[in-house]
Amino acid sequence: MRTVAETERIANQFFEEQGEFIRRERIETPEMIGAAYDTGALIGAVTDSEELPHDLRQFARNCRDEFRAEVGRSEYRFSTASGTGGMYGDYDGQLIIHYQHYLNLDPRMAFKGAQLTGDCVSWSKRSMRDQARCFDIGHLDQAEEYVKRSATADLYSMRGHTGAGASPSRIANAATKIGILLENPLESPDGEVWDFSDYKQYYKWGMEYGRTGFPRWIYEANADFGPKQVAEIHTDDEFLTALWNGCGLGLGSMMGVSKTGGKDGVPFLSALSGSWAHDMHVLGADCRRKYHREVIVLMDQSWGGRWNRISQWPDEYKVNGMVPEGMFAITLTDFMRHVRRGECHALSDSHGFRPRRQATIGFEGLI
User: Fold this and answer.
1) Among 219, 268, 308, 309, which is least packed by CB within 10 angstroms?
2) Closest Cα partner for 90 from 359, 288, 364?
3) How many CB atoms lie within 10 A of CB 16?
4) Do residues 132 and 246 lie in contact, with contact meaning Cβ atoms separated by under 8 Å?
5) Can you tell me the distance from the alpha carbon of 81 to that of 77, in angstroms, rounded to the nearest whole number?
């Protein structure tokens, strides 16, 4: 059996080769990125899946063990109101579309764009932290001001390696240590300007600094405004409670889905299809069972608006006539099948997980 250091070295070499593959084959458009995931040529999210090579699976287990050694296995349950895992089921019968706050605050940039390398993990975790902070501002009326969408590069720089691809566990944990980097120019202590305004210009910095990380001053610029806590999600009760409470959720797995709807006769509901080593952000959930006998989970694809051929969204899912451009829907059963096989995480806001943050009786606090 290989040591942790040996496994890390082999994984690092693999990620380097993936980055070189993207450059050599000139995989430069969202459509080409999606096709590479679809064929298995690109592994963006490394998890302990039987579909991945043995050494990558061991790397994923090592990263997950690092996470659990530092964070714990049941952090979210211990952060509930009772402190013992009481979930209360406040979400039952509710339409959870907290993405509405992000769309209202930033209609021009919220959930827009597409990844240009194997950085799906940082795209997912970026949307997770943005949705959590926008819930604070839009729903809880917190004093924080929304300035800009956050960047992906600070998250991608915390992988421990360069090239393309990442561990969801490692990046989810890192998200609680680096504040929040906004898509703005940032001036260093010695007067040098680092311009993070445009993903197409800055995403390669996240690749190049993946082994060493950015200079510390970048992480310290907004150190108090990033996610404070992170947790693994294991059950549907944990998942729906965290989502209802305004946390940012994401799933790294081998889940692939159809780009068209029609499952069980529901025009906007996708079936599982194919296999992607991919990390995707969770947008919301429909727990009303209005359109399907099951809870419907709404997710966000990071391959741009052209990927999605679904247009028949219910009006109540729309915000000012629109939905996130990469949104798709699957059943809770299909989603949880991949939670059990992959890695699902919840990010808090900058205050941490709060007991029963959005209670059905209309106020926040211990009930």
Assistant:
1) 309
2) 359
3) 17
4) yes
5) 9
- The amino acid present at 217, given as its one-letter code, is W
Q: Token pair of 33, please? A: 């990125």
Distance separating alpha carbons of residues 164 and 78, to the nearest angstrom: 35
- Given phi > 0 = left and psi -120 to 50 = alpha, else beta, which region is 93? left
- State the SS3 of 63-92: HHHHHHHHCCCCHHHHCCCCCCCCCCCCCC
pTM of the full structure: 0.93
Q: Which of 153, 149, 148, 150 is nearest to 119 (CA)?
A: 153
Give me the DSSP letters along 93-142. T-EE-THHHHHHH-TTTTT--B-SSS-HHHHHHHHHHHHHHHHHHHTS--
Cα angle, residue 96 at apex, residues 93 and 179 outer, rounded to 5°: 145
Q: Which residues contact 218 (CB under 8 A, 6 or more apart)?
A: 154, 181, 186, 194
Strands (E), the chain: 95-96, 185-187, 193-195, 230-232, 248-257, 272-286, 296-300, 327-331, 343-347
pLDDT, the chain, mean: 91
Angle between helices 54-70 and 4-24 (to 10 degrees): 120
- The pair of structure tokens assigned to 114 is 């597409």
Taking only the tens place, the pLDDT of each residue in 66-99 is 999 998 876 666 555 455 556 678 899 999 999 9
> CB–CB of 91/244 below 8 Å?
yes
